[in-house]
Write a structure and sequence with these properties.
The complex is a heterodimer of chains A (210) and B (260). Chain A is an all-alpha fold. Chain A folds into two domains: 90 residues; 74 residues, no CATH class. Chain A is 83% helix and 0% strand. Chain A is built from seven helices and no strands. The longest helix of chain A has 39 residues. The radius of gyration of chain A is 26 Å and the shape is extended. The relative contact order of chain A is 0.06. Chain B is of the alpha/beta class and 260 residues long. Chain B has two domains: 64 residues, no CATH class; 178 residues, Rossmann fold (3-Layer(aba) Sandwich), CATH 3.40.50. In chain B, 60% of the residues lie in helices and 8% in strands. Chain B has eleven helices and five strands, in the order H-H-E-H-E-H-H-H-E-H-E-H-E-H-H-H. In chain B, strand 3, helix 7 and strand 4 form a beta-alpha-beta unit. The longest helix of chain B is centred in the C-terminal third of the chain and has 29 residues. The chains are: A mainly alpha (210), B alpha/beta (260). Chains A and B meet through helix 1, helix 2, helix 4 and helix 7 of A and helix 1, helix 3, helix 4, helix 6 and helix 7 of B.
Chain lengths: 210, 260
């Protein structure tokens, strides 16, 4: 018996069956048990967060002490900011609700996230440029459809020529909708089957190839 | 008091039938009677790893940023199954593998999977977990910029990203494309599939990624289980067509039944 493999499989099966029963049945004992399991999950995730922080310190601490690459000062900055966030959060006693914590979050973290998110527009434009080239009949159809959807999404065109709006709607409901549902049904079935395989211990890839 | 939750009796029957179908498919698979179509995206992984060895450049495997406790857990499991396969190939052929992680609960599992693969190939001493499986950040764009930075500096030969992805999918696909990496993408997140289709060399669309673990294992039992997906799909198509025809005739028996 391989305990390192079999014990996780047994735990997966028991927890999985309780989760399934919680969804389909009304037994209060099952619902209470599943609530406890979900709470355990939250606690485990909190521990995992500590593991992540420890991992960051270990990896970046080593990088700073080695100074082999020119990016070591980025590691120093990362650890510095990590400590600042923790100290401000704990020091005020109000954690993320404190005004100081909110300030550094809103003034530093949020703008950086928004900047990265907005850069997506350029990535999408580059991607669209690469793919929207009418090289053959298939790519021409894709190109023509994309142009119609773009025109239908740009306020000035439907406002001037309502046909653009209706064309876009027709593309979405009649053409995209059918394909979308087909893929969605396939995804749903695939997810159910992999869920069942995980429950019965057939899907063991997540445990490594033992 | 009702035993079953209202509106979930038919879904429960469907779930039990899916369970039976999966069991039957596995039994038929054991006899080697099931043949499945080739998935070029998964067949290409060995070639991709070989290319990385030839060019002396690293290979990236990104299992997405889903966890084990959210809606996308099945996609995460599918991504980790592929990671297990990729790590085995990398250890066997001698390619340097990088797995930049975003979720702290998936991190230890990913580390164990890669470690197991290297151990099985007798090359555990070649694995540097801290450098090769770094935890970059739990925040979407901090993680994304970390991955983009790594890709720009290391110029990997290949990138395999199978799992749940969000807005970062386009950033990754474009960055790895720009550095000349061969890419295999796969996600069941509908909005991200077009991004992968636009820029990846091979794409696993929808349910194909759920079959990936079984497909790459080459195990007849596992391959058999893929067949049950197709059986269920056939039933779904029959029900859809029947429902469409009956609804057109104003007979709502199927939609009423599904509401039970």
């Amino acid at each position: 018996m391989d305990y390192k493999r079999d014990i996780p499989l047994v735990i997966t099966f028991i927890v999985g069956v309780i989760a399934v029963m919680d969804y389909y049945t009304t037994f209060s004992a099952v619902k209470e048990t599943f609530t406890i399991i979900k709470n355990w999950g939250v606690v485990l995730q909190a521990f995992a967060l500590g593991l992540g922080a420890a991992n960051l310190f270990r990896v970046h601490g080593k990088r700073i002490s080695d100074r082999k690459t020119s990016e070591w000062y980025f590691s120093a900055w990362l650890l510095f900011m990590l400590i600042v966030f923790v100290v401000v959060g704990l020091g005020t006693g109000q954690f993320e609700a404190s005004s100081q914590y909110k300030w550094i979050y809103n003034a530093i973290f949020l703008p950086l996230g928004a900047t990265m998110y907005s850069s997506l527009a350029f990535y999408m434009a580059i991607g669209a440029y690469k793919i929207l080239r009418a090289r053959n009949i298939d790519s021409f159809l894709l190109f023509a459809t994309a142009i119609l959807v773009i025109l239908g999404n740009t306020p000035i065109f439907p406002a001037t020529f309502p046909a653009f709006f209706y064309t876009r709607e027709w593309i979405f409901t009649a053409i995209v909708g059918g394909a979308y549902r087909g893929i969605r049904i396939g995804i749903g079935i695939g997810a159910v089957v992999i869920g069942i395989k995980t429950l019965i211990g057939m899907e063991t890839g997540y445990l490594g190839r033992r | 008091m009702a035993i079953f939750t209202e509106g979930r009796i038919v879904p429960l029957i469907a779930f039990v039938l899916a369970w039976v179908a999966t069991y039957l498919a596995i039994q038929i698979g054991k006899e080697g009677k099931i043949r499945i179509r080739r998935l070029p995206g998964l067949d290409a992984i060995e070639e991709v790893v070989g290319r990385a060895v030839e060019t002396g450049r690293p290979i990236f495997d990104i299992p997405g940023r889903g966890s084990f406790t959210d809606l996308y857990a099945t996609q995460t499991i599918a991504g980790l199954s592929v990671l297990s396969y990729v790590a085995t190939l990398c250890a066997r052929l001698g390619a340097k593998l990088y797995v930049p992680m975003s979720r702290v609960d998936v991190l230890p599992v990913a580390i164990e999977i890669v470690r197991d693969a290297y151990r099985a190939e007798g090359k555990l001493d070649e694995l540097d977990v801290e450098t090769q499986i770094p935890y970059l950040s739990g925040t979407q764009f901090a993680w994304a910029s970390g991955v983009i930075g790594m890709a720009s500096r290391m110029k990997p030969a290949a990138n395999i990203m199978i799992g749940p992805f969000w807005a970062e999918s386009m950033m990754f696909a474009e960055t790895f494309h720009r550095v000349g990496a061969m890419q295999v993408g796969g996600t069941a997140r509908m909005y991200q599939i077009p991004f992968f289709a636009a820029l990846c060399d091979y794409v696993l669309i929808g349910e194909e990624m759920f079959a990936a673990g079984a497909y790459v294992s080459g195990d007849p039992n596992q391959i058999g289980s893929i067949a049950s997906q197709d059986w269920y799909k056939i039933v779904a198509i029959i029900l859809s067509v029947l429902g469409m025809l009956l609804a057109t005739a104003n007979i709502t028996v199927i939609s009423d039944l599904l509401k039970l």
